[in-house]
Write a structure and sequence with these properties.
four-stranded antiparallel β-sheet, 21 strands, six-stranded antiparallel β-sheet, alpha+beta, about 450 residues
């Protein structure tokens, strides 16, 4: 197998012809030394130089073709992780809070408290989807709160603000006409808000996060519960004003504003948050053009999706979950040609391109006429509606996976991630994911 530019292995087998060795072998058959010397000069210095130059041109052409076939959406990969709040590094430059207010949870007391309960904080449950579902169903726990050890009743509810953030991000992708790729929400699905019943507690609890002072009896979930955690992703919110632009171009009664991308950040993806006065968002090379009714403005918002290698700051020790795809010539070609999923090889290629290899691998698949054994469950694209072709009437595409580390709490999240993305590619089937030996994990 011949190596391509940059040391990577070519996916196309080529005949291993070594012309220098071939010429040397042929020269051995010439007995006359003078003739051999002359032939060597002609063949090695003449023909050899021509062959070498041809190979160099071939490799350069191959490199140019490979680079010119740019993957749409390659600038919009999303990476996420979770950390302890005290370990947050504002100088990281590649990871930012999903919800900015998570940096100051004590300020959320009055906002998130309800008529019956005080908000006490947020926890991260380090468990698979099945245990998370049981934890969420149980809802009610007992314990004590405060230094005086007051008996109290606690409730857990899924932290819906992270789900809202995903729907918000999806809407921005649509507004910018950028293709959506499933975001791995394996961490975001495991955050829960803690509330304590107001009865018997002073009002001061409405103004603080009491979870740190609480002793909650979580039972079998105790070792899985982590307080003071927060999720991060590689999306930075950026504000800009009209003074940041060049002089707007007047088009009738409208104005065009230019959002220019810095030269050092052109590998990153940028999305403009839509507003009522923004009529059109048009992405161009090195800039984004905004058509608006406003001649000047202040504090419009953009999102920067950082695509350089994610920095692992001190104590950022949890795995990074990413929806970035592995690059390959076959993927570039298929993407550019608009090739659809038609074969088992193409199906498995798409799965192997995803960032899942540390957790699961695809083993087999099947087509089921009757999918009643696999009832529909929620995937990672719950906000993407397909009302034109109902799921109930489709055949089932059953994807079978094998885990790399049995019992890892992210295994089934990886299956849900794969199934959710494949479902977007394969509209004629209802996709189901199964871990071999464990049963169905995810259905879209």
């Amino acid at each position: 197998m011949k190596e391509q530019q940059g040391g990577s292995k070519s996916s196309v087998l080529e005949y291993p012809f070594d012309y220098e060795r071939y010429i040397a072998e042929q020269l051995r058959e010439i007995d006359d030394l003078d003739e051999r010397r002359f032939a060597k000069k002609v063949l090695v210095e003449g023909l050899g130089a021509v062959i070498g130059q041809t190979e160099r041109k071939y490799r350069e052409l191959e490199r140019r073709i490979y680079q010119e076939m740019e993957i749409p959406g390659s600038r919009y990969g999303v990476v996420s992780t979770v950390i302890r709040r005290e370990h947050y590094d504002p100088m990281n430059g590649t990871l930012f809070p999903v919800i900015l207010s998570d940096l100051h949870p004590e300020e959320n007391g009055e906002v998130l408290s309800t008529e019956d309960c005080f908000y006490g904080g947020t926890l991260f449950l380090e468990a698979d989807s099945g245990i998370c579902a049981a934890f969420e169903t149980e809802k009610r726990f007992t314990g004590t709160v405060g230094k005086e050890g007051r008996e109290a009743v606690f409730h857990v509810r899924r932290a819906v603000r992270y789900r809202d953030a995903m729907e918000w991000l999806y809407g921005i992708f649509l507004d910018n006409h950028v293709p959506w790729a499933t975001v791995n929400t394996g961490y975001l699905d495991k955050f829960y808000d803690i509330y304590v019943e107001r009865q018997g507690l002073p009002e001061e609890y409405a103004e603080k996060s009491f979870a740190a002072d609480a002793d909650i009896r979580f039972g079998r979930y105790g070792e899985m519960v982590h307080f003071d955690f927060m999720p991060l992703w590689n999306i930075e919110s950026v504000t800009f004003d009209s003074m940041d632009f060049m002089v707007p171009c007047i088009d009738g009664i409208y104005y065009e504003h230019e959002f220019r991308i810095d030269e050092g950040k052109r590998e990153d993806g940028y999305l403009i948050q839509s507003r009522e006065e923004i009529l059109e968002i048009r992405h161009e090379e090195e800039r984004i053009m905004l058509r608006s009714t406003e001649e000047s403005f202040q504090k419009w918002n953009a999102l920067r999706l950082v695509q350089r290698e994610t920095v692992r700051s001190l104590d950022y020790d949890r795995p990074f979950l990413s929806n970035r795809r592995k690059d390959s010539f076959i993927r570039r070609y298929a993407n550019g040609a608009g090739t659809y999923l038609l074969t088992k090889a193409d199906l498995f290629r798409r799965i192997m391109e995803m960032d899942i290899e540390e957790y699961i691998e695809a083993e087999d698949y099947g087509i089921l006429e009757d999918g009643t054994a696999y009832p529909a469950q929620e995937g990672m694209n719950w906000f993407v509606r397909d009302e034109l072709f109902p799921m109930d009437g489709r055949k089932v595409l059953l994807l079978k996976f094998r885990t790399k580390e049995r019992g890892h709490y992210l295994n089934d999240s990886m299956v849900r991630f794969v199934v959710s993305q494949i479902q977007m590619d394969v509209s004629e089937y209802r996709c189901v994911g199964v871990i071999v030996g464990q049963g169905a994990v995810s259905t879209e």
